[in-house]
Write a structure and sequence with these properties.
The protein is mostly helical. 71% of the residues lie in helices and 0% in strands. The two termini are 25 Å apart.
């Protein structure tokens, strides 16, 4: 079942046959208070998704040039396109999990059977893991607003974001990428 922070609180309270209160209510208040930061974080990742995914795939290709040669998993271009598509789909689920404050949609729709799919297609999971490690770094840099022109080059886009400490959101997003990486390992 796909849950957001509110649904999860209601189901938990219902299971206890109690009203939402105490720690659950405090968590919901915090979730609402951080809403604009959460939306900015999701927007930062989603609006840079295509560039981030292509950078991650290019990164693994630079680290392992054999992937681009005949017989490599990024050769021919249709395999490269499939890798880009798959990484962007998983990234979309990561952003949804960040928006909802819950990883169940990521687990149910993207991670369930992910390793088996890559294995069946003959894709080395080490390359996929490395691509998601790169995506994790890119996403955290966007969330914490630490991406710089020196790091991004001509692709750099400065986003207007709510000011404040986004380390908790960055940590949450990193944990979703860690779930992806764990599912592939």
């Amino acid at each position: 079942m796909v849950l957001d922070a509110f649904s999860r609180a209601v189901i938990t309270a219902d299971a206890k046959t109690a009203a939402i209160g105490g720690a659950d209510l405090a968590a919901l208040k915090s979730f609402i208070a951080e809403g604009n930061k959460r939306l900015d974080a999701v927007n930062a990742i989603a609006s840079n998704a295509s560039c981030a995914v292509s950078d991650a795939i290019a990164g693994i290709a630079c680290e392992n040039t054999g992937l681009l040669q005949a017989g490599g998993n990024l050769y021919p271009t249709r395999r490269m396109a499939a890798c880009l598509r798959d990484a962007e789909i998983v990234l979309r689920y990561v952003t949804y999990a960040l928006l909802a404050g819950d990883s169940s949609v990521l687990d149910d729709r993207a991670l369930n059977g992910l390793k088996e799919t890559y294995t069946a297609l003959g894709v080395p999971t080490t390359s996929a893991v490395r691509a998601f490690q790169i995506l994790k770094s890119i996403s955290v840099a966007h969330i914490t607003n630490t991406n710089t022109e020196a790091n991004a080059g001509k692709k750099f886009r400065k986003l207007e974001v709510v000011q404040g400490d986004c380390s908790a959101l960055a940590s949450e997003a990193a944990s979703y990428f860690d779930r992806v990486i764990s599912a592939l390992s």
